[in-house]
Amino acid sequence: MEATIGHNSAADEPATKLAKEELKSLIERVERLEEEKKAMSADIRDVYAEAKGKSFDVKAMRQIVRLRAEDPEKRADREAILETYMHALGML
Length: 92
Prior knowledge:
Elements lengths: L12 H41 L4 H12 L2 H17 L4
């Protein structure tokens, strides 16, 4: 017995078929995007491996990438708080 979406009346069959096709299309798009994401992740790993091979500090590079992606205003606020805490602890 086949599972259906919606009601089981004959009038709903075209709508059910469209819903199934739409669902299948959405699932396939997600699957393609997941594959692209895997490929991108592998490419990013390769770039970091190349950087490491050229004696760059990958940990620092990752941090810089995160900082550059962050909103400049929010980053400035966070850094100000960090500096205040470090000063309070005698670290500066």
